[in-house]
């Protein structure tokens, strides 16, 4: 059973520690989305749709969204390269509509939620929080 408040506290601690990629993983209904909602409420964590990871203008939307970005329902198999490039130290080409291509080194912190097992390439470069279901909130 996952207590949402303790999961949010662990995410905040990982953000404060400077982790660039935080992965919430667990079976369906274990609280990943609920934890992201709680985290984003009243904080500077912005929501970005998972489709941004595979879209030409997506990296710009993610980088421009704020210092920390929450992305729900991420397919770690399909989005692995995008996540690794956005949370790495290498420059990334950013394509903004009607603007020249720009190269930046991303500094955004990304929090993703998924029901998929975390690949080794992601686990080695991220803070992984494994949830077990069902989720509960603290009274």
Notes on the structure:
- It is a single chain.
- The chain is of the alpha/beta class and 139 residues long.
- Helix content is 29%, strand content 23%.
- It contains five helices and nine strands; from the N terminus they run βαβαβαβαβββαββ.
- The strands form three sheets. A five-stranded parallel β-sheet has the order 3-4-7-2-8, with helices on both faces. Strands 1-9 form a two-stranded parallel ribbon. It has a two-stranded antiparallel ribbon with strand order 5-6.
- Helix 1 crosses helix 2.
- The mean pLDDT is 87.
CATH hierarchy class name: Alpha Beta
> Strand pairing plus helix content: what structural class?
alpha/beta
- Cα end-to-end separation: 15 Å
Known CATH architecture: 3-Layer(aba) Sandwich
Approximate helicity band: 25-40%
CATH topology: Rossmann fold
Query: What profile does the largest beta sheet have?
Result: 5 strands, parallel
Q: Can you say what the CATH homologous superfamily is?
A: P-loop containing nucleotide triphosphate hydrolases
Give me the count of strands.
Answer: 9
Radius of gyration over alpha carbons?
15 Å
Low-confidence stretches: none
- Which series of helices and strands comes N to C? EHEHEHEHEEEHEE
Strand order of the largest sheet: 3-4-7-2-8
Number of helical runs? 5
Number of domains: 1
Based on Cα principal axes, name the global outline. Answer: globular
What integer is the average pLDDT? Answer: 87
Strand residue content:
15-25%
């Amino acid at each position: 059973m996952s207590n949402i408040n303790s999961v949010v506290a662990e995410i905040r601690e990982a953000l404060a520690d400077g982790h660039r990629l935080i992965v919430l993983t667990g079976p369906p209904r274990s609280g990943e989305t609920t934890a992201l909602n709680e985290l984003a409420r009243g904080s500077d964590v912005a929501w970005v749709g998972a489709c941004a990871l595979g879209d030409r203008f997506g990296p710009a939307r993610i980088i421009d969204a704020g210092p920390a970005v929450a992305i729900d329902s991420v397919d770690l198999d399909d989005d692995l390269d995008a996540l690794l490039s956005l949370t790495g130290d290498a420059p990334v080409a950013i394509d903004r509509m009607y603007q020249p291509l720009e190269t930046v080194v991303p500094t955004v912190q990304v929090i993703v939620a998924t029901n998929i097992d975390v690949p080794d390439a992601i686990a080695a470069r991220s803070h992984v929080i494994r949830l077990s279901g069902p989720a509960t909130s603290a009274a």
